[in-house]
From TrEMBL:
Keywords, comma-separated and alphabetical: DNA-binding, Transcription, Transcription regulation
Acidic residues: bias regions: 226-249
Taxonomic lineage: Bacteria, Bacillati, Actinomycetota, Actinomycetes, Bifidobacteriales
Record protein name field: TetR/AcrR family transcriptional regulator
Biased composition (Basic and acidic residues): 207-217
Region (Disordered), start-end ranges: 206-257
C-alpha cells in the first residue's frame, strides 16, 4: 500500500470513483463487492468505507455525477425551442449519442439494474423530466400549427423512449457513427415509416451538415423555418389517409417540413 498512499485524499476519492464506475458498468450494482473495489484500487477495505461508507455510497456518487452530466447535455439541446423543430430533434438525439460515446461506462451504470433506494434520482426519473420538456416544446409547435395537443404527452414519450432505447442498443453495437444513427432516429421521428429516406442525413447538426452550410455560404446555419428540400424524402406519392378526427397529425410535405 506504500505506493497508493502517495495519493491525496481527493485523488484517492477520484480513483475509487473511476474503479467503481468501471465495475458497476461491467457487472451491475449487486454483483460488485467492497472487497473487489478495494482490490482493483489496490487499497484496503477501510479506505473505501472512509470515503464513501460502503459501495452504496460510492454508487450514489457515481450515479449523481452521471445524472447531472446527462441532464446538462440534454437540457442544453432542448434549450432553444425557437429553432426549427427538426433541429431540436437532431440536436437532442446527437447530444444523447455523444454522451453515450464519451461516457460509455457511466451510461451503462445508469441503465443497468440498480438499488431502488432513491427513485427520485433514478434514470427513469431523468427520462420523465426530459419527456416533460419535450412535451412543452411539442405543445407549442402543435398550437402554432393548429393541431390537437391531446396526443402530445404520448408523442413526447415515444420520441424520448425511441432515442434512449436505440442508444442503449448502439452502445453495445456501435457499427455506425453517432451521426448516422442520429440521422436514422430523426428520419423515423420526422417522416414516419411511410416516408423514410433511403439515405437519411442530419440537416442542421454534425460534420456533414456543417460542411453543407459552409458550401452554401452559411445559409443553413441560421435556418429557422424550412430545411433544404433536396435532403427530404421524395415520398410519398399519395397523401396520408386521415381518420377524420382532429387527433390525426397531417403529414407535412417537404415544403413545410
Amino acid at each position: 500500500m506504500a505506493h497508493s498512499s502517495r495519493m491525496t485524499s481527493l485523488q484517492r476519492r477520484e480513483q475509487l470513483i473511476a474503479v467503481g464506475r468501471s465495475l458497476f458498468a461491467a457487472k451491475g450494482f449487486e454483483a460488485v463487492s467492497v472487497e473487489e473495489i478495494a482490490a482493483h484500487a489496490k487499497v484496503s477495505k477501510p479506505i473505501v468505507y472512509e470515503h464513501f461508507g460502503g459501495k452504496e455510497g460510492l454508487y450514489a456518487v457515481i450515479v449523481d455525477r452521471e445524472m447531472r452530466a446527462l441532464t446538462s447535455v440534454l437540457t442544453a439541446a432542448l434549450d432553444d425551442p425557437d429553432v426549427h423543430p427538426r433541429r431540436i430533434v437532431e440536436r437532442t438525439a446527437l447530444a444523447l449519442l455523444t454522451y453515450i460515446e464519451e461516457n460509455a461506462e457511466g451510461f451503462q451504470v445508469l441503465v443497468r439494474d440498480s438499488p431502488s433506494t432513491d427513485p427520485s434520482g433514478s434514470f427513469s426519473s431523468l427520462l420523465g423530466d426530459i419527456s416533460l420538456r419535450v412535451e412543452d416544446i411539442l405543445s407549442e409547435t402543435f398550437k402554432r400549427q393548429k393541431l390537437s395537443v391531446k396526443g402530445v404527452p404520448y408523442y413526447a414519450q415515444m420520441l424520448v423512449g425511441m432515442t434512449v432505447f436505440t442508444g442503449q442498443y448502439w452502445a453495445d453495437r456501435p457499427k455506425v457513427s453517432k451521426e448516422q444513427l442520429a440521422a436514422y432516429i430523426v428520419d423515423l421521428a420526422w417522416h414516419g415509416l411511410s416516408r423514410l429516406n433511403s439515405k437519411p442525413q442530419l440537416l442542421f447538426e454534425g460534420a456533414k451538415a456543417e460542411k453543407r452550410q459552409r458550401k452554401d455560404g452559411g445559409v443553413a446555419a441560421t435556418e429557422s423555418s424550412e430545411p433544404p428540400e433536396s435532403d427530404e424524402s421524395v415520398e410519398p406519392t399519395e397523401p396520408a389517409e386521415s381518420d377524420g378526427t382532429d387527433e390525426a397529425v397531417p403529414e407535412a410535405s417537404p415544403a413545410t417540413d
